[in-house]
Amino acid sequence: MNCLKKLVLVPFCLIFIGQAYTQEHPGIMMTKKNVAAIRKGVNIYPLLKSAYAKVKSSADQALKEPMLVPAPADGGGGYTHEAHKKNYTNILNCGIAYQISGDRKYAAYISAILLKYAAEYEKWPLHPKRKEGEGGRMFWQSLNDFVWQVYTIQGYDMAYDAIQPKDRQTIEKHLFIPIMDFFTKDCKETFDKIHNHGTWDIAAVGMTGYVLHKPEYVEMAINGSDKNGKTGYLAQLNQLFSPDGYYTEGPYYQRYALLPFVIFAKAIYNYQPELHIFNYRNQLLAKAINTSLQLTYTNGAFFPINDAIKDKTYESTEMVYGLDIAYADINPQPDLLDIAERQNTVIISDAGLKIAAAIAAGKAKPFKYTSQWIGDGASGNDGGLGILRYGSNDDQQCLLFKAAAQGMGHVHFDRLNILYYDHGQEVLADYGAARFINIETKGGGGYLPENNTWAKQTVAHNTIVVDQSSAFKANLKDAATYHPDLLAFKANANIQVVSAADDHAYPGVKLVRTTALIKIEGLKKALLLDVFKASSAEQHQYDLPFWYKGNLVDASFKIEAAKDNLKALGTQYGYQHLWLNSQNSIASGKGYVTVLNANNFYTTSFASSIPAALEVKLVSLGANDPQMNLVDSKAFILSQPKAKNQTFVSITENHGSTDPVAEVVTGAAADVTELTVLGANDQLTTVSFKLKGKQYTLRINYTDKNNFIQLTQ
Question: Which of 38, 500, 432, 4 is nearest to 215 (CA)?
Fold first, then answer.
């Protein structure tokens, strides 16, 4: 028995009062009481059986290979970096293999490799390749050290009873305790930081505290290094997540941060179930997991806003952990099983057993993607994300509208940005992060210089740029002071709309954007309407980029691309990276551009409230890129070089396809024609267009939420 003070949940801290808990191993993801059932389950349930086969195969391979604990030397993706990553995976896999098979050779491996680490760890200084922020000892950044411990302590917990007491004493005294000192003292700033790095640090310390019978570590993890509740686990939950379960840095980092949040919660739940940690803030963690899934397109990829690697999907390990725990310990929603089937694996754990058994019993139901507004900020009132969806999961139109708060350092300067998907593809895209993760030859695997000079800048996104300058002049402190305001969100059968305003991104300029998916009888797909208003007492240049995927195949104007001597479009705020391929004056202020994307045609018809001097600039990415770091990207930019007030209106229509094998093209011409801005002011925007010969009028009333948008024929 070990005495740990009981934790009582209150809104912003945990208060400790006396309570004892029983120490058993294993006790985190896999618990001693359920080991027998999991052993039985790996022979009964197909998903658990296949997951265990992979784990055991990896564990067996680890036993065949040399046991290497190299002195840290390399950055992300380098030899020593990958060796230490592989070691924590091996430790975890061998811990699972020991518990399921009962074969002590797996526990012996864990004991032996951790004794090697114990013999070396205290000799290692800070990592020689450390960069900005706190460096680690094993890895170039302390974050990776925290991750190493989160995985390693699970393996140690599972092998604990099979390791000789004297060896446990050596491992704990010369490895885990020094690691805890490093995490809580040398890395104190990170430990107390409200940030995903801090979350990993806290989870590592708290989980280690439970496993080692060190209640002081658990208390620090939950209430911060000063144990006053101003920092620590609950403060992280309170400040980093909105009531809707949105993580302030966006979907990519929400996925990454979820694992330490849920796995430490699982440890608290197992050791002290009376605390009801999963009910905290109205089951916030369950909401966060569900929101993470809603922040993916139907192909499983996360919306790549902010610093994001675009290939990341809900198949990632973090989401497998989160989904398994959400279903097993919080709320057994049958549609979560649909995603688990697509993940095609489970964690070999108490939770994984429940998931595998439920799927085998046929309890899965299709995951329901929904149109919704997801609030940002601790109170949910700091802007947010609007998601509009039409169609089945097999062929869905989806629009993401970003009107969230600035968040932290991984967030981009892209107020009122949109992303658009259809037919399983990106149509209007986001660049994501300028990074080749863990590829040593590309900046050591970390963020590239172009992440700041390009990817974060406003022009890299589908939103208005004023005077060729990024919002808030790319100043994070200023941007964090303000957030956009939601004007309207409606998700009706035929019209889904989201609208938001921002008065602070550019001094003296008010931005209001309204986007909608509109279903009209006779059309297979909904129309994407976009109305972007900029108003000011002074004259400005307004640029609205559309970063498209595919190939430009038609336009209402004659394109004359520059033949030689390409020039960058500007000198700063991302413009220095843009080749100006063609610049076209549109006297009428309206026209169209057609793109062929994955054998589907998309025409964006556009119109301006000020026809005179409207320009369409065709640009490509790649200027001033000496290391060839930037990924190929193309855009057309609607540009009004000089105006006080400007309203850009566009309708994007999917209208046909091509079969390159049969060499057949159908519906190559758009049905939307004669798009015109009839009027635009602070109260009302009115536009008209023809569709298959029929005249339509659309009104947006910014002062009437009940009748915000109306379409008449």
Answer: 4
Q: Are residues 486 and 400 in the same domain?
A: yes
Residue type, 605: S
Measured CA to CA, the distance from residue 375 to residue 10 in angstroms comes to 22
Which regions of the chain are under pLDDT 50?
1-19
Q: Does 703 map to a domain? A: no
Residues spanned by the domain of 415: 372-673
Which of 325, 360, 395 finishes a domain? 360
Q: How far apart are CA 390 and CA 385, in angstroms?
A: 17
Domain boundary, last residue among 311, 337, 360:
360
How many CB atoms sit inside 10 A of residue 354's CB? 22
- Angstrom CA distances, 206 to 60, 146, 202, 503, stand at 30, 11, 6, 43
Query: Quick one: which of 422, 504, 513 has its CA closest to 464?
Result: 513
pLDDT in tens, 651-673: 999 999 999 999 999 999 999 99
pLDDT at 12: 37
Number of folded domains that form the chain: 2
Whole-model pTM? Answer: 0.93
| 46/148 same-domain check | yes
pLDDT for 198: 95
DSSP 564: S
Note the helical H segments in 160-271.
165-171, 177-181, 188-191, 196-211, 215-223, 233-240, 251-271
CATH of the domain at 234: 1.50.10.100
Whole-number Å distance between alpha carbons of 416 and 413: 10
User: Is 153 in a helix, a strand, or coil?
Assistant: helix
Catalytic residue annotation:
253, 410
Clarify whether residues 334 and 383 are in a common domain: no
36 and 112 fall within a common domain: yes
Provide DSSP, 505-554.
SSTTEEEEEEEEEE--TT-SS-EEEEEEEEEESS-EEEEEEEEE-SEEEE
Nearest to 48 by CA among 358, 328, 268, 271: 358
Q: Do 388 and 356 reside in the same domain of the chain?
A: no
453 Cβ partners below 8 Å, 6+ apart?
574, 576, 577
**Which of helix, strand or coil describes residue 312?**
coil
Question: Are 48 and 76 in the same domain?
Answer: yes
Please indicate, yes or no, whether residues 71 and 167 belong to a single structural domain of this protein.
yes
CA distance 491 to 222: 40
Residue 545, in any domain of the structure: yes
Instruction: Give domain status of residue 683, yes or no.
Output: no
DSSP-derived pairing of the beta strands 664-666 and 614-621:
unpaired
Clarify whether residues 466 and 611 are in a common domain. Answer: yes
Residues 6+ apart with CB under 8 A from 642: 539, 540, 541, 613
In a domain, 701, yes or no: no
